[in-house]
Design a protein that fits this description.
By secondary structure, the chain is α+β, with helices and mostly antiparallel strands. The protein has two domains: 27 residues, no CATH class; 70 residues, Glutaredoxin, CATH 3.40.30.10. It has five helices and four strands. Strand 3 and strand 4 form a beta hairpin. The longest helix has 14 residues. It is elongated and about 55 Å long. Pfam families: Glutaredoxin (PF00462). InterPro entries: Glutaredoxin, Grx-like_ET, Thioredoxin-like_sf. It comes from Pseudomonas kuykendallii.
């Protein structure tokens, strides 16, 4: 029974390592690719939430630079460095937002 609990604890730790690592002080701060005041959208052409993010930024007249992670090698490297696991990823003045989250975008902007 102890062995099963240990395996389950290890699996949970592995699945949530991105949340545990900062608590342990092991993570290095990820350098932001955005210049001061810049918003960068890491996206793909087929992503529905990327389209919603584009529309949200356009409706609020927030200037942004878009990097398609499937077409730009530099965009893909930056996306990976930011811990990208899905799209969209938005770098708002150094604050990284994973997924479509209008409230977080406005708060960071």
């Amino acid at each position: 029974m102890k062995r099963i609990l240990l395996i389950l604890a290890a699996l949970a730790l592995w699945q949530h390592w991105d949340r545990v690592e900062p608590l342990l002080g092991l993570s290095q701060p990820v350098p932001s690719q955005a210049r001061t005041g810049e918003v960068i959208l890491y996206a793909t052409s087929w992503c529905g939430y990327c389209a919603k993010t584009r529309a949200f930024l356009a409706e609020r007249a927030i200037p942004y630079r878009e990097l398609d992670i499937e077409k730009s090698a530099d965009g893909r490297r930056a996306y990976d460095a930011l811990g990208g696991r899905g799209v969209p990823v938005i770098d708002v003045k150094g604050t990284v937002i994973h997924g479509y989250d209008p409230q977080s975008i406005l708060a960071a902007y």
